[in-house]
Structure formats: C-alpha cells, structure tokens
C-alpha cells in the first residue's frame, strides 16, 4: 500500500493506486504520527502510482497542510497526472500545495 | 428537491442494472468499478471513465459517512441503479439513512457537517462538475437519492454539430 519515508525533515508519502474515503483514513492517521513526532516539517505527496482520487484526497492534503503550516511547513504534490492535477485545481488546492512536474 | 435534469432529452432504455451493497467504506471501490465495467461497451475515454468513477465514489461515500453516519454496519444498505439510454448513462444512488435537511446548503462547495472526518465539502461540487446532470432528492430520516447523468463516448468536436 502507501509508503512513508523521512528525508531530512520532509515526509515523503507514496500514495496508493486509488485514494478514496476508505484508504484516506489510514493514510491520514499514519502521516499524523510522523508529523506529531516532530521529526518532519514538510510533507510531499507522491502520486506516481495513483490512478484514481476523489474528494477524500483533498481532505488528506488539507488536513496535513493545517498541521504543518502552523510551524511554517509546506506541502508538495509530485508526479500528479492530468486528472489528479485537475482535481487539485478544482478544489483550489493549488494555492496551498506546490505542484511539482 | 433540486431538479436540474432535462427529461425531454431522455431516450429509450438500452441496458440496466441494479446492485445492493452494505454501506461500508470498502464498497466505495466496488461501486465505482461496477459502473466502470457497466459502461465499458460504450468505449468511454479515460477522462469520462475517471469522471464517472469520481462522481459515483463521492455519492457512495456520502451515503456511507453522512447517510449512515459512518457506522460501517452491514445491515445498512446502499442501492445503485445504472441505466443506459443510448450513449447516456444514468446512475441512481440511494440510501435509507438520516437524509439531508437542507439540500441546497449541502450542495454548496466546501459545506460539510463532518469536518472532524476531514471531509472537504467538495462531494456534490465534484458530482456536478464531472457529470452532465445532477439531481438530489432527500428527506430527513427517510434517506437520500442522488441521480446523475452523463453522455459517454462522444468527442465534442465531432458531435457538436449534430
């Protein structure tokens, strides 16, 4: 499923194939454990494997953003395909998340 | 009740299916895959497939976490009816949950009653954006019925003249 890795103070999350409400609960709680440990300041969401995402994905990103941004942290999205990018744009997340590539 | 559908444009039924499943979050994936399989004969584009799957996922998620208040109880059921009228897909997703008191407010982007579950409040907005028509019928303590339509397998630059 999803992988978590810490590089410097960046939490890298390799997201699963499909992101919906069912899979989002687990991702959010695991990510929060890393964030609350104080070892990470920024979060990178890697969409390389992701082929499907609904509005639950917005909740994951927004929720992590709220947690890291109060300490000056940033949130990034990498390897998002056109469909994922469209969902990020539609929900106004582009002002919050830096979309790379 | 909000009526956005153009009933004049509805043609004759060419295929139909109904599934009943438990209102548990595992079935969100099942529901959108079932719809995707149902419309495969229409040769949908990847974009159309993704649009329909997202809309269905949103509607079923709403039934599971709002209609049945995230109980994930096997006795709670969701019904999904899919109909094809030529190249138009019609999906109905129905639950017998708590219902929505103010449908108009619920359909506003960013409106959510469950911020603690990190719901973004974008569900109905996505259904509206990804489908051609959306109709929501709900009564408090009776349940909610979401009806959506979308024309499949058409390249707009070819068919727009017809």
Descriptive tags:
heterodimer, A: 101 residues, alpha/beta, Transcription Regulator spoIIAA, five-stranded mixed sheet, globular, B: 162 residues, alpha+beta, Heat Shock Protein 90, five-stranded antiparallel sheet, 31% helix
Structure description:
The complex is a heterodimer of chains A (101) and B (162). With 101 residues, chain A is an alpha/beta fold. The longest helix of chain A is centred in the N-terminal third of the chain and has 16 residues. Chain A is globular. Chain B has 162 residues and is an alpha+beta fold. Chain B is built from five helices and five strands. Chain B has a five-stranded antiparallel sheet, with helices on one face. In chain B, a hairpin with a 3-residue loop joins strand 4 and strand 5. In chain B, helix 1 packs antiparallel against helix 2 and helix 2 runs antiparallel to helix 4. Chain B is globular and about 40 Å long.
Inertia-based shape of chain A? globular
> How many strands, which pairing sense, and closed or not: the largest β-sheet of chain B?
5 strands, antiparallel
N-to-C series of helices and strands of chain A: EEEHEEHEHE
Q: Classify the beta-strand content of chain B into a percent band.
A: 25-35%
Strand neighbour order, sheet with most strands of chain A: 1-2-4-6-7
List unreliable stretches of 5+ residues of chain B.
157-162
Summarize the structure.
Chain A has 101 residues and is an alpha/beta fold.
Layout: helices, strands, pairs:
The complex is a heterodimer of chains A (101) and B (162).
Chain A lengths: L2 E5 L2 E5 L3 E2 L1 H16 L5 E5 L5 E2 L1 H15 L5 E4 L3 H9 L6 E4 L1
Parallel strand pairs in A: 2-4, 3-5, 4-6, 6-7
Antiparallel strand pairs in A: 1-2
Chain B lengths: L14 E8 L4 H13 L6 H22 L9 E9 L2 E8 L7 H4 L16 H8 L2 E7 L3 E9 L4 H4 L3
Antiparallel strand pairs in B: 1-2, 2-3, 3-5, 4-5
């Amino acid at each position: 499923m999803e992988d978590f890795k810490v590089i410097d103070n960046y939490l890298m999350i390799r997201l699963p194939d499909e992101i919906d409400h069912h899979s989002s609960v687990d991702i959010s709680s695991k990510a929060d454990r890393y964030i609350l440990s104080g070892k990470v300041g920024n979060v990178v969401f890697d969409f390389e494997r992701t082929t499907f995402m609904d509005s639950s994905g917005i909740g994951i990103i927004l929720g992590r953003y709220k947690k890291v941004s109060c300490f000056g942290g940033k949130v990034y999205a990498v390897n998002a395909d056109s469909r994922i990018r469209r969902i990020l744009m539609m929900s106004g997340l582009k002002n919050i998340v830096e979309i790379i590539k | 009740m909000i009526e956005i559908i153009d009933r004049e444009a509805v043609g004759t039924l060419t295929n139909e299916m109904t599934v009943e499943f438990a209102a548990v979050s595992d079935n969100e994936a099942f529901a959108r895959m079932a719809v995707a399989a149902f419309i495969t004969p229409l040769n949908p584009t990847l974009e159309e497939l993704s649009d329909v799957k997202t809309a269905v996922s949103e509607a079923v998620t709403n039934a599971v976490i709002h209609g049945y208040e995230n109980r994930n109880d096997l006795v709670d059921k969701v019904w999904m009816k899919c109909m094809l009228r030529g190249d138009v897909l019609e999906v109905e997703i129905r639950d017998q949950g708590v219902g929505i008191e103010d449908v108009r407010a619920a359909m506003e982007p960013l409106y959510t009653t469950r911020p603690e579950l990190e719901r973004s409040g974008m569900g109905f907005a996505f259904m509206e954006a990804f489908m051609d028509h959306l109709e929501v019928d709900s009564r408090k303590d009776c349940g909610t019925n979401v009806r959506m339509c979308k024309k499949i397998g058409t390249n707009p630059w070819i068919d727009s003249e017809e």
